[in-house]
From TrEMBL, chain A:
Keywords: ATP-binding, Cell membrane, Ion transport, Iron, Iron transport, Membrane, Nucleotide-binding, Transport. Gene3D superfamilies: P-loop containing nucleotide triphosphate hydrolases. Coiled coil: none annotated. One of its GO terms (molecular function) is ATP binding. This is Iron(III) transport system ATP-binding protein.
From TrEMBL, chain B:
The keyword Cell membrane applies. It is found in: Cell inner membrane; Cell membrane. It is a multi-pass membrane protein. Keywords: Cell inner membrane, Cell membrane, Membrane, Transmembrane, Transmembrane helix, Transport. Residues 65-268, 355-547 form the ABC transmembrane type-1 domain. The lineage of its organism: Bacteria, Pseudomonadati, Pseudomonadota, Alphaproteobacteria, Rhodobacterales. This is Iron(III) transport system permease protein. The chain crosses the membrane at residues 12-37, 69-93, 100-121, 141-164, 189-214, 247-267, 299-324, 359-381, 393-415, 421-439, 475-493, 530-551. The keyword Transport applies. It comes from Rhodobacter aestuarii. GO terms for biological process: transmembrane transport.
Length: 369, 558
């Protein structure tokens, strides 16, 4: 990415500017670095998810885009316009964004229509036009009948729909979602993911979506940026992220499968102290961890020369039996099996070698047991 | 988190700092200067600390300090003795008429101690109402240190009662029941779980009682002066009011009093900051109250006795005196008449103008204090400019300001000859004093309200396109409105009947409710004074009750 600031007036014909572009963005709070040298670009009409564990800086990044925080270094451009640079920032009200908050942040002293109409009011839209737009936005989230209610009379899911209506009512060029579904229970969350995806597609929204839930990120986003300790660890389409995680920690955070230590042996690569896995050319020299994605394994009758595993315990989970299997060398893996295996039974494991991912030893490795 | 520290925020913080410096800090500064440099009034810094030495060597300061401590600690002990059993019964058992008792115990807290004291004098003095009814008087007990302590405790105990019954109820529901599941009997559950968990709250409310007692003027002035029991507050009053005026001496006593009040305030804040255990859960379970059984009657008798002594007798004595045609006529049907009330409410009497003056002053003080307090709380909580710590400190300073000290500060600051223009000797000096005295109320209420407003509500407004000021006006102000209103009401009620500061800095030719009552008792018609007292009690007790109930209804939006 080009890190030098763009000259504001270029004679060259430029394409539509990115809806959002950050370059070299850094922030320290109380001396602790929260964000380090973030570069990101989001094209109009696209959805980017910021995915990471709590404390990874994803919400802070969102607040920088909103203008609720000011960066220490780096720049933020919205639709080609510089809105933040080191120590300077356009205030949030001047950025023309929509935002959905984790705690809904509905104003309790205004009714639903008052909440949703507020951004239009701030843009000095005349009342009749405003009422029409509010009604349309509420209709889109299925709450047309609730305009006169107080937020406190609504359920959590309804409140979040009001918050979404408020975020989209002014048709902002960019909508920010700050873990909008994390306060809802699982069933409702799944419904809401579908609804948000529908809205995003229908309205052609450009959105930055912060979440710690990877299924949410995968369902909604064209691209997912995985954040770790204030940096972007990998940015890729959801499918590519799952197929090819860039590091052990990303694979672990996304829970893609078992991460096991490997060593070089006579025939090639072996599980440490355990069975043969792959010929030498499967992985580069400095490899020490392998990712065994669940989908790379299939269970068969044990045969000679095959990777075998002993069932140590199983839990029935409704959609199958979640079995913990012990491999030679003291390694454990977990697999979902269609039938309940007998404890102590020995199973054969067939590995689809193309799906294995090999990782080099790295300073940040924390090999799982 | 860092946000835009733009010009408006800096400007707002600076404005709050300047206002609080003039209104709050300057009077305290002048007291300190006067105490250190006794000749500063003459423009000289000569003989620093000499006045302090004088006050100390004359034995006035140690004696008054010790007496103040005796009065404060005594009031704390008696308040606890009254309130703890009542609160435990109220919170843990099914007491008949529980809500009614709560309302009844609000009344003694709403009756200003000087009025309660005067009514007890009418009741207990030789040939007082008690002697007329029973042949006995209690003048010996009344005009004694225990008498002072008991009367103050009868005013202060509701603070402990309400704080404690709330935490007992919450703890009884959440934790004590758990201990009973694990085998503790009811008494053991109370002693091992409920009481220890309620201790921080109990201690905090007792410290508040201590602070109220040591700052009280009316009771020790009426009852203590006659027996030579001088406390810091009455000592300061005499040093200012009696010839020869001793401003350095008054300032020295004031510094000691402020130090004691500050210590009490800090201790209380620390206890409360550690947090009561009763608030641990998001939804405190209501205790399953147990039936009182055979103890119902004794419990009701106890509640009734406390209500009679704290509320009934003072109110009845006030009413009897107000209705008496002549005091010497005593308690007799033919001696009853409404002439005192007509005199209070009739046009062009001193009484009526005092009433109107006080109500007007209370209204202005409530508005200004509310605005200033809300402004200070906003600056402290919602801006990022550096001066907000100074604003925070100044907004908390009046917590340690008894009325008599505020009056002294007003005199020392605004009576300087070099002011080209001064509020001194006008009604506005009273407004300034009331604002300083009562600033903590709106600060406390709006701070609590602002803290409850999630920062994301601000952020949502800003992202929606509202500027900082629009956000404050459209989001914050409506949300803290009901709380601010309650605080202003409290300011109004207290300011309208404030006694000691009003007595000391009253401009010539004016009277307030409290000074009118006080002077009528001293040298005028006691009946007229008590009629005024009765009207005041009605106004300042019923009005807040009505508004509080109304406010509770509007709070439903939260």
């Amino acid at each position: 990415m080009d890190l030098t600031p763009q000259p504001p007036l270029s004679t060259a014909v430029v394409d539509t500017p990115a809806a959002l572009e950050m370059a070299g963005l850094s922030l320290r709070l109380g001396g602790t670095p929260i964000l380090r040298d973030i570069d990101l670009k989001l094209a109009p009409g696209r959805v980017l998810a910021l995915l990471g564990p709590s404390g990874s800086g994803k919400t802070t990044l969102l607040r920088l885009v909103a203008g609720l925080l000011v960066p220490d270094a780096g720049t933020i451009h919205l639709a080609g316009k510089l809105v933040a640079a080191a120590g300077h920032a356009l205030p949030p009200e001047a950025r023309g964004l929509g935002m959905v908050f984790q705690d809904y942040a509905l104003w309790p002293h205004m009714n639903v229509a008052g909440n949703v109409g507020f951004p239009l009011e701030m843009r000095r839209m005349p009342a009749p036009e405003r009422a029409k737009r509010v009604a349309r936005a509420l209709d889109r989230v299925g709450l047309a009948a609730f305009a006169e209610r107080r937020p406190s009379e609504l359920s959590g899911g309804q409140q979040q729909r009001v918050a979404i209506a408020r975020a989209i009512v002014a048709e902002p060029a960019l909508v920010l979602f700050d873990e909008p579904l994390s306060n809802l229970d699982r069933e409702l969350r799944e419904t809401m993911v579908g609804e948000i995806a529908g809205l995003v597609e229908e309205l052609g929204l450009t959105a930055l979506y912060v979440t710690h839930d990877h299924s949410e990120a995968f369902s909604l986003a064209h691209e997912v940026a995985v954040m770790e300790a204030g940096q972007i660890a990998q940015i890729a389409a959801p499918e590519d992220l799952v197929a090819d995680p860039a590091s052990v920690s990303i694979a672990r955070f996304l829970r893609l499968g078992a991460l096991l230590p490997v060593q070089r042996g006579a025939q090639g690569w072996y599980l440490r102290g355990g069975a043969f896995l792959a010929p030498p050319e499967a992985a580069p020299e400095k490899t020490d961890t392998v990712l065994l994605p669940s989908r790379a394994l299939s269970v068969t009758e044990p045969r000679a020369g095959m990777l075998t595993a002993t069932v140590t315990r199983t839990l029935f989970r409704g959609d199958g039996h979640w079995a913990t299997l012990a491999l030679d060398g003291g390694h454990d893996i977990q697999l979902l099996l269609p039938h309940r295996p007998a404890p102590g039974a020995v199973l054969g494991l067939q590995i689809s070698h193309g799906s294995l991912r090999w990782f080099p030893s790295s300073p940040s490795k924390r090999t799982s047991p | 988190m860092r946000r835009q520290g733009g010009a408006p925020q800096g400007l707002l913080t600076a404005l709050a700092a300047v206002l609080l410096t003039v209104i709050v800090a300057a009077p305290f500064l002048f007291i300190a200067l006067q105490a250190i440099f006794p000749k500063i009034g003459a423009g000289s810094l000569a003989a620093p600390f000499s006045a302090m030495a004088d006050v100390l060597s004359a034995g006035r300061l140690p004696r008054a300090t010790l007496n103040t401590l005796i009065m404060g600690v005594g009031t704390v002990i008696v308040s606890a003795l009254i309130a703890v059993p009542l609160a435990a019964i109220r919170a843990l058992y099914r007491l008949p008429g529980a809500a009614l008792w709560d309302v009844i115990f609000l009344v003694p807290f709403m009756i200003p101690p000087y009025i309660a004291t005067l009514s007890w004098v009418m009741t207990g003095q030789p040939r007082g109402y008690l002697e007329q009814l029973t042949g006995q008087n209690i003048a010996g007990l009344l005009f004694s240190v225990p008498g002072i302590v008991i009367i103050l405790a009868l005013h202060c105990f509701p603070v402990v009662y309400f704080a404690l019954s709330r935490s007992f109820a919450a703890i009884g529901g959440r934790f004590a029941d758990v201990s009973r599941v694990f085998g503790a009997g009811p008494l053991r559950a109370f002693l091992r779980v409920t009481l220890p968990l309620a201790l921080p709250g109990l201690a905090a409310s007792l410290i508040l009682v201590f602070a109220m007692a040591i700052e009280e003027y009316g009771t020790p002035a009426v009852l203590g002066t006659r027996i030579g029991f001088r406390v810091l507050v009455t000592g300061i009053d005499e040093a200012i009011g009696d010839w020869p005026v001793d401003l350095p001496g008054a300032s020295t006593l004031a510094l000691v009093l402020v130090a004691m009040a500050t210590a009490a305030y800090l201790a209380q804040r620390r206890l409360l900051a550690r947090g009561g255990f009763e608030t641990t859960g998001s939804r405190p379970l209501q205790a399953d109250r147990r039936p009182l059984g055979r103890a119902t009657l004794p419990a009701l008798l106890l509640f009734g006795a406390v209500a009679l002594v704290s509320t009934g007798i003072p109110l009845l004595a006030v009413l009897a005196t107000a209705l008496a045609k002549t005091i010497s006529g005593g308690l007799a049907p033919e001696n009853l008449g409404l002439q005192n009330f007509t005199a209070v409410l009739a046009t062009s009497t001193t009484a009526r103008s005092a009433l109107l003056t006080s109500l007007g002053l209370g209204l202005v003080a409530a508005l200004l204090t509310g605005l200033l307090g809300a402004f200070a709380a906003f600056v402290v909580l919602r801006t990022r400019a550096r001066g907000r710590f100074y604003v925070d400190l100044l907004a908390a300073l009046p917590n340690a300001a008894p009325g008599v000290v505020v009056a002294l500060g007003m005199i020392l600051l605004w009576n300087q000859p070099w002011w080209p223009i001064t509020p001194y000797n006008t009604l506005s000096i009273l407004v300034l004093a009331y604002v300083l005295l009562l600033l903590p109320q709106p600060v406390r209420y709006t701070t609590a309200a602002l803290q409850q407003i999630a920062p994301s509500l601000d952020a949502a407004a800003r992202v929606s396109g509202a500027s900082e000021l629009t956000m404050a006006r459209r989001i914050l102000l409506p949300l803290i409105g009901p709380h601010l209103l309650v605080a202003m009401l409290l300011v109004f009620v207290v300011a309208a009947r404030e006694l000691v500061a009003s007595l000391l800095i009253l401009p010539v030719g004016h009277q307030t409710i409290a000074t009118f009552i006080w002077r009528q008792f001293d040298q005028g018609s006691v009946g007229l004074g008590m009629a005024m007292a009765f009207v005041t009690i009605c106004l300042t007790t019923l009005l807040p009750l009505v508004v509080l109930i109304a406010a509770r209804r509007t709070e439903d939006i939260g």
